[in-house]
Amino acid sequence: MSQGPPRSQFTQSVLAVDNARKQRRTRLLAGLAGLLALVLCAGGWMVWAAADDGEAGNQGAKAVRQAPDAIRDTVETAPSSPVGHLAVDYREKGFEKRFGRDASVRAPGTWATDKTLVRGVGGTLKGFEVGTSKEVWSTDLGGPVCGTTRHVTADGRTAVLFQEPTKPAEDDDKKSDGKNKKKADKKSDKKSDKKGSKSKKKGSKKGDKRKGDDKKRGKEKGKGKKDRADTPAPAPCTQLALVDLDTGKKLWQVALPDAKDASPTSTNVTLTRGTVTVAWSRGSVAYDMKAGKPLWRDTRPSACENAGLAGGNVLLALRRCGADADRTYRVQRLDPRTGKPQWTYDVASGVQRVHLVSSEPAVVAVAVRGPGVDKLLALDDLGAYRSTVDMPEGRYIDDCFTARFGTVETCDAIVAERDRLFLATKPKDPEVNRIVSFDLATGKVVRRFDSRGRGAMYPLELSGGKLLAFRGSADGVAPDAVVSLDPESGRETPFLLFSVPEAAGPVKPGETDVLVEGGRVFIAPKELRAERGEDGEGAAYGALGVEGA
């Protein structure tokens, strides 16, 4: 097991609590952990941590038991004590040796069950046991992951898209060069020998050799910048698998039909009500979740392309019609078992880009003037216009159009549920911002949650009627945290306090997965890089999992 987060005043105390856990009964520990939280978090932190513990500990009603094929909807319950200790500590060992000191490898996908944290790294899925950090399984997909979905079934399954395995062209070239070299060596052509001798004489000069080496290094260095360490081979994103997150087993795998143009940047996968669906620019297809049996497909060329599918309890499709100045967009709700539209909403003309933020409620992000989101459009259950939430340039965090993977459902800093929507403002300084809630019936502001200089925060999810938000440490001494915000009263209570190691990188929307599941918090960078410093040992930080007492 790796060493865990860097030691600080806070994490040292957490370790002390861990040791006490082994010697004392659970009830005594809970009281001690609560006391430690109050003592460590002086001043404003003390008042904040001492908020209504009953409210934090009984967050929301109990979830109704779901069918296995239903999309998981966990109602989170805060730990009895907010003081966090390690549940998972994953470092990718030997990373620098395999990929290079300055390399980065895409790590798409972070999922968790009661037993396992799962990470996608390159073309591999890895499962880690919660509580021990032990790698319990590893599944080689055969090609780089090019599409994931945050949705998971009630019994712990999810779908993954990956590319067809291909042999790099360089390998064939090297083999070919080797064979040609052997043949050339066997030949006794005098002209060839003379040319070779001249080349050797020229190459024997130190100045020429240095120039040649420098030129070669320059090409290799330039190539390294252009082509990442895990740059996918030029292969379509056509392989789809349903995976059991506790065992790593591929329950079924299929090849998408007529999907030669399914590129990693224009293809997405999602889940909804016993159905796995995939969309790419020239097609879409759906499979029954149980056995991978095809349900419907639309791979015929048409005037409108598929820009993406958003899943969950409802399936929405985004269609892109026409080109350039004449381009228009439409949003459709589909029957997941037949693919037939149930309603259609035509987005006004003049919009440059459109993104599906949420399927239920239906929320659509539009870009009119520039690269960022200008407005959020809310639709009702019948596809009729409901309201508009304005997003003035530079005011709110917006990462919808900058996702590394997937074409929709990737707005990490926007949370919507029922009649409410939550946005985070961009920090005025690194530690000061606010989360703003909007009424989706009117598009007007309802409430503001100020960070009060205790660390910038952004929304994660709504659970049991409460908004869970991540708050970074303001000074590196006070803990990072996930907090619970009450949309009705405005009350803020701690959910879990912990320390994010520097090796994990800054926790930012779009760059880091922050997942709350089963009362635990998991933090994982979307790209792995070799750790700096003597203690890094060439490893890359892969994930941190924290749980309470």
Radius of gyration, in Å, reads 26 Å
pLDDT below 50 for ≥5 consecutive residues: which ranges? 1-63, 169-229
What average pLDDT do the residues reach? 80
Structural class: alpha+beta
Helix content: 10-25%
Q: Tell me the distance between the termini.
A: 21 Å
What would you say this structure looks like, in words?
By secondary structure, the chain is of the alpha+beta class. It is 18% helix and 36% strand. The chain is built from eight helices and 34 strands. The strands form nine sheets. A four-stranded antiparallel beta sheet has the order 1-34-32-31. A four-stranded antiparallel beta sheet has the order 3-4-5-6, with no helix packed on it. It has a four-stranded antiparallel beta sheet with strand order 7-8-9-10, with no helix packed on it. Strand 17 and strand 18 form a beta hairpin. Helix 1 runs antiparallel to helix 2 (26-40). It is globular. The two termini are 21 Å apart.
